[in-house]
Fold:
Amino acid sequence: MSGEVVMARGLTRVYQEEAVPVHALRGVDFSLSSSEFVSLSGPSGSGKSTLLNIVGGLDRQDEGIIELDGEELAPLSEGDLAALRLRKIGFVFQAYNLVPVLSALENVEFIMQLQGVGSAERKERAGEALKSLGLSELQDRRPGEMSGGQQQRVAIARAIVTNPVLLLADEPSANLDSETTKELMELLRNLNETQGMTIITATHDPMVMGYAKRQVHLRDGTVERDEVVTD
Amino acid sequence: MSANLAFQLSFRNILRHRRRNAMLFAAVAVAVLGSSLSMGLVRGWQYDMMDGVVGNLTGHIKVHAPGYLDDPSIQRGFQLASDYQPDVPSEDLMGWAPRISVPAVILSERETRGIQLVGINPSAESISFLDKVVIDGENLNGPGDGRMIIGKELARQLKTRVGLRLVIMTQGSDGLTRERGFRIAGTYDAEGTGLEKAYVFSGLETIQSLLDTENVTEVSIRLNEEPKKLSIQALLVDFFIGLEVMNWEELNPQAAGLYLFTDSIIYIFFFFIMGALIFGLVNTLIASVMERTKEFGVLRALGMNRRTIVLEVVIESVLIMTFGMIFGLVLAYFSFLGLEGGINLGVYAQGMESFGMRAVLYPIMRVDDFVTIALMSLFMGVLASYWPAKRATRITPLEAMRG
Structure:
């Protein structure tokens, strides 16, 4: 056990696009400690989303080792990875990806339902999570009745309600205006600073990058820069 | 917990596409209605046929002497105590009738025909077709009535009518020919049965007197519920020692075979209709799964296991089938109420007679048929979801979210 939330060594990932291999990651080393807030940045094709997906157990590396909270991911089956994601990772997607037929409250409850949490406890925790993000009045609304910013905040509530080991946000602000992006990133920073949430965001937005205390810049599948930002 | 979530998502997804799923409900309902009606019509024909066999003097169970079926003469008669009552639970017994039934020849002034001469107790014949026939003239007034009733068609063939006397010749208990004149009390119309050409009835005591015997050749027993025939038959076998006790299926194996075959027809119709429906259901479910590729991918990314996704698709299919099935059965129920008076097939009456069917067909729906339709519909809902559910589980989170 490495004592780190994420430990990746020599990660390589190659996609076969028709007849042409695409080297998304080339021997990347990456580690993340508890309560860190890291942004992965880089131009399109740099490998930031690929790294994020491998860390999140959504993709598998072709070479190298990846551990999440001390558990190596490679030997795990698809079912085991899904269970791991459920227990340890909170996801915030670019397209929000709320379940359209569930209300905001039910979307937040949903993860706890998968975990087998009882109904009364689910409702209470989901309600509190929405309240902490200023979304109490939206709890009965469905995603189609909310703005992009509201949906993304509900997605964050869903991601954090189970106190995950790691929060992964892939281009969380890509579909939001700058004002809403600012609000969102303030929220994530607050979660990191007050609750010690460990966060990785993948983004090409400089504003979003600026909220992270550590910035890892990738290019062509390798880490170009990995620096701690001091205010 | 996963089942509750899967149910919640399935139900909400059905409501999400109301128009599309309403069409599907309607399709299921129409298929169930169609299956029920066709089942009911064939079942009605089946029961009509059985009723015809049982009512044509066979009864559900018949007792006769060994060898009588091969040689139906009075020599194969047996004694029946005057105070005999069948030892059958009263709630199961519709009625019973002792008879003499022997081959004979009937002669009019102009024609001669071979017939079956049957001596009856008219009051006991509520169990046979004689209870329902229309009689032109008079019915027999008791077992001692010395007149006869003949079929309308036979009267036409013999060129005779009510009130006239005809001669009947048959073999007596001593083996010698007996003949007697009988006045025609009435002619009966046994529509669609073919019996009126063959059966001539007179009083039981009259025929016993003619044949110089006190015996009967058969005791026919009719039950309130056909499925009880085997258990009642077993009771009667113990009583009528030395005699043959046979049920209608044994007496008429051809009809019995047709009766069983009809059950197969019923289910063949059902499977064809519902099978066609399944293709529509599969098509709609596949479309629903494909539309939700990204959604399923996200659910898997968030940690939902394959089993819950399969359950969601299966529940959606079963819910669609269930709602449609219930609606269809309700429509079927009211349709059967509306068809209580039967369907008049008068135009086809002559052809129907050759199949032992009457001109009016009464659809019948048994409770177990309704239950079968309900259960098979649910099973088909599960079956229809198999391929779409497999498609849903093949979706990997990454591919789905990229797509």
